[in-house]
């Protein structure tokens, strides 16, 4: 093996764009990471000047060689750091990077075993628990099979699985964590339904998947879901993804939002809206009928207090018909 082959960066084998690979390499140095953290500590979202002059930044980072420090700062300039007349400040990319690290690795991993939530399973009325594991919050029914099974896992009735940073769990009660997970997911779904990735602002591919071998009762052994129809949304740029029921997708249409409003139910919530959120999940029942397998085309009927609204979705999750 030649020396050049032995020392070649593993990143060179990746198919990612060159600028993305350069960004990974830029962040592999401790001094550069320290520069980003120092600038973040100075940053305030509503202040005009939030940067540091070279001398102030150098003093905060505390590296011994000003020449080496200047080299590392220059490498960051233009991607993660912006040079201004007043000094240096985080670029939007640099800010997002530090925020992501702090929301995840920057907070001690919460210890949240199964914890009871003050609601019941919408499928069977059983007790509901939440479990935080591997940056995911699982909502579980203790009595039934739930909406789907995790691969290789037949021991829990899964009602929800949400990507949630440790910051979303730390310092909150089980009810608040439950609400935060739903609210965060609603916002993510809304953005993706609108065609904008909430992570990178890229485009979103929206598909409606119908299981051809769906079982009649419980979770299907073929697809692992209780529902025959699953809505999937995926960003081809950063690969952010989300999946949901067709009923949940239909609830984002303005006509359905108005239908809920007319029946005293809000489709917007905050961390103190646990009871309203439970109302939304319990009272807004949906029934999905497959109108066509190929291309997928479904009708979603939402009924509240004897009133109903019917929404048709095509294979791209677009609403093609409304009947009130």
UniProtKB/TrEMBL annotation:
The DUF7351 domain, residue ranges: 118-319
Domain DUF7347 intervals: 22-101
Matching InterPro entries: DUF7347, DUF7351, WH-like_DNA-bd_sf, WH_DNA-bd_sf
Name the record gives this protein: ArsR family transcriptional regulator
């Amino acid at each position: 093996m030649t020396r050049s082959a032995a020392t070649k960066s593993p990143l060179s084998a990746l198919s990612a764009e060159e600028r993305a690979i350069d960004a990974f390499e830029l962040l592999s140095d401790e001094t550069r990471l320290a520069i980003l953290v120092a600038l973040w500590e100075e940053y305030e979202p509503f202040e005009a000047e939030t940067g540091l002059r070279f001398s102030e930044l150098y003093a905060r980072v505390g590296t011994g060689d000003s020449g080496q420090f200047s080299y590392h700062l220059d490498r960051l300039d233009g991607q993660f750091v912006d040079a201004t007349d007043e000094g240096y400040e985080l670029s939007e990319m640099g800010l997002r990077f530090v925020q992501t690290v702090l929301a995840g690795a920057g907070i001690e991993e919460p210890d949240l075993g199964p914890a009871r939530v003050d609601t019941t399973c919408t499928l069977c009325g059983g007790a509901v628990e939440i479990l935080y594991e591997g940056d995911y919050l699982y909502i579980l029914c203790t009595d039934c099979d739930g909406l789907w099974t995790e691969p290789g896992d037949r021991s829990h009735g899964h009602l929800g699985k949400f990507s949630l940073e440790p910051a979303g769990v730390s310092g909150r009660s089980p009810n608040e964590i439950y609400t935060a997970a739903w609210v965060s997911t609603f916002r993510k779904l809304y953005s993706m339904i609108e065609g904008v990735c909430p992570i990178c602002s890229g485009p979103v591919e929206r598909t409606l998947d119908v299981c051809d071998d769906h079982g009649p009762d419980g979770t299907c052994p073929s697809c692992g879901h209780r529902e025959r129809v699953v809505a999937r949304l995926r960003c081809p740029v950063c690969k952010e993804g989300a999946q949901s029921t067709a009923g949940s997708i239909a609830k984002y249409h303005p006509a359905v939002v108005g239908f809920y409003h007319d029946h005293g139910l809000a489709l917007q919530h905050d961390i103190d809206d646990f009871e309203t959120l439970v109302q939304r999940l319990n009272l807004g029942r949906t029934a999905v009928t497959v109108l066509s397998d190929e291309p997928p085309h479904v009708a979603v009927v939402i009924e509240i207090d004897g009133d109903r609204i019917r929404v048709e979705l095509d294979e791209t999750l677009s609403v093609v018909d409304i009947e009130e």
